[in-house]
Amino acid sequence: MALPLSDYALIGNARAAALVSNTGAIDWCCLPEFNSPAIFAALLDGERGGYFSIRPVGKYTSRQRYLEGTNVVETVFETADGQARLLDAFVVQSEEDKGRALFPDHELLRVVEAISGSITFQLEYMPRTYYGKNTPRLQDRKQLGVHFAWHENIYTLLSTLEPGQLRVTESMATAEFTVEPGTQAIFSLSYSSQSPAVLPELRETGFQRMLQSINYWQNWSSRCRYEGLYKEEVKRSVLALKLLTHAPSGAIVAAPTTSLPEEPGGERNWDYRYCWIRDASFTVRVLVKLGYTEEAHAYMNWILHATRLTRPKLQVVYSVFGHASLKEKVLGWLSGYQNSTPVRIGNGADKQFQLDVYGEVLDAVHAYAPLVETFDRDTRHFLLGLGQIICRSWQQPDNGIWEIRADMAHHTHSKVMAWVGLDRLLKLARKYKWEDAPVQKFSETKDRIRESIEEAGYNQELHTYTRAFHGNDVDASLLTLPLVGYCPASAERMRSTTKAICQQLLKHKLLYRYRGVTDGLEGGEGAFGICNFWLVEVLARSGEPEKARELFDTMLAHASPAGLLSEEMDPETGALLGNYPQGFTHIGLINAALALNEVYQQQEQPYAYK
Questions:
Q1: In degrees to the nearest 10, what's the CA dihedral of 534, 537, 539, 545?
Q2: Which of 70, 235, 268, 559 could be cross-linked to 262 through a Cys-Cys bond (beta carbons 3.0 to 4.6 Å apart)?
Q3: Residue 195 burial (10 A CB sphere; 0-12, 13-18, 19+)
Q4: CA separation for the pair 528, 514 (Å, rounded)
Q5: Neighbour-count burial for 104-143, b at 16+ CB within 10 Å, e otherwise
Q6: Which residues form the GH15-like domain (predicted)?
Q7: pLDDT for 375-433, tens place per residue?
Q8: Residues 552-602: pLDDT tens digits?
């Protein structure tokens, strides 16, 4: 059986990532990019997927954590003979360090050292190419490492083991080795895209690169300027977001994994190794508030670049390089996580119409605006063009925020985000004195959208906003209305809506995004991570901070020991579900923590919505 997702922690270098378990196995790794074919995919098929395992021989217990302020994972093993630890990281270095020596495109570094006693470890290295479909031929090149190539890619495993300790066949490498206090065993898996490959030196400088990586992450996380409630959880979340950031482009992927199921054994298995435009506004707010202006600039530049191929329209999802076509395919040879099939790559949401993304992008630009004095002419025309599309399209049905694969509808949340888009454009036009902005048109359309929402998106008999116009059910996207400034959280209509959402969607203090909706798929799903944090923020801002904090703590109780959260969780078992870790969930955690902290700081005064 596959390990629970909570038994994994994420490592990466802001280009690629890997999941390492508390049993010492790297069961998921794609190189050289987030959405490259996996070389280790045991997460999706334990027999065929491939893995890289380092664990004690015989019985042991283990515990896993991140070294403080870093994305370096420490797994401590305890046996009858003693204790040892395994450090796992992708090498990350400052520009100064990089200038001192040649380095490969990627290096995954694993260091084993004894804490007490003498412990014997077993190493198993079994890479596979293209998500476990192919078995590469390993070549033992002695001091030059265990080598294999696939297309133009070159992968090399190096170690500090003595000659002959590493036994290599055509399909796998194995070893047994013993560590005692004062000794280390170091392993390096490097990737290069050119020949001859750059091979990192290991015996003299290998551990130094681990220390450089620790120092890099501690320096980066120390830039977080938040000092309030849940400080450590906020810092861990922003470190997780950094792992999901694609440094060359500035993009942030939704998650580093594909096809982790929203329901064990079910078909709701999607590839999240791409960038959703809808995440933009909440993400930019987080980066700006926490002081990560460099990342905010990079992310906004990516949004402006990625959308060029589809302008003036926006697509729902793009690759990190701005590719607009993400053809969805099924990998039929993989059994799936916990036998959940199909395993998919690509994402069919690239073909959907979701009205809300226009408002999300414009809201993000408005949140980003304090960092720039002006926007260039092309950007201004692009933003005003988004407003024109909203004016033309706001009365059309769409697939909505939840990417429903059934009939389109007039989703209330989508209409609200259309209102938000025009509201932010009008503010930007005033701020930057855009004389060519059709202010009257935007203002009149904005007013018509609000009238339509209040008339058709609110059910007078049920006293609640509804999931779709003229409907009689709610969904959790309605919680964003006060979060995007459409109305105060304390407004009468919003209070009654929040109450209805809690009554209909809460189970064991965890919130589903919707229930009983025909979404074109079989089976069900878990409670939705970010929706819980939206509820926390709304409750905090509507005068119920204690209830909000109780729900926040419930979410924290479902995080992995390493502090990571997935897309969803099972209210019955507490198991993490869906792709992991999920950036959107951690963005929600940060915004909810900031809201709670703000409210608690103002408790001596009447709370005023801003």
A1: 140
A2: 268
A3: exposed
A4: 9
A5: bbbbbbbbbbbeeeebebebebbbbbbbbeebbebeeeee
A6: 230-541, 548-593
A7: 999 999 999 999 999 999 999 999 999 887 778 899 999 999 999 999 999 999 999 99
A8: 999 999 999 999 999 999 999 999 999 999 999 999 999 999 999 999 998
What structural domains and CATH numbers belong to the chain? 5-221 (2.70.98.10), 223-604 (1.50.10.10)
What φ, ψ does residue 78 adopt, rounded to 5°?
-130, 130
Q: With beta carbons less than 8 A apart as the criterion, state whether 457 and 466 touch.
A: yes
Q: What token pair was written down for 27? A: 């069961």
CA torsion angle for 535, 539, 540, 541 (degrees, to 10)?
100
Q: Which two tokens stand for residue 308?
A: 């060029």
Structure-block tokens of residue 488 = 């105060």
Tens-place pLDDT, residues 283-299: 999 999 999 999 999 99
Prediction pTM value: 0.95
CA dist., res. 365 & res. 384, Å (int)? 12
Among residues 122, 196, 126, the alpha carbon closest in space to that of 161 is found at 122
Site of tokens 């009365």: 395
CA 139, 143, 145, 150 dihedral sign is: negative
Residue 286, SS3 per DSSP: helix
Q: Report the Cα–Cα distance between both ends of the chain, in Å, rounded.
A: 49
Token readout for 91 is 């090498």
pLDDT-based confidence at residue 1 (cuts at 50, 70, 90): confident
Residue carrying structure tokens 């270098």: 13
How far is the C-alpha of 542 from the C-alpha of 495, rounded, in Å? Answer: 8
Structure tokens at 275: 């960038």
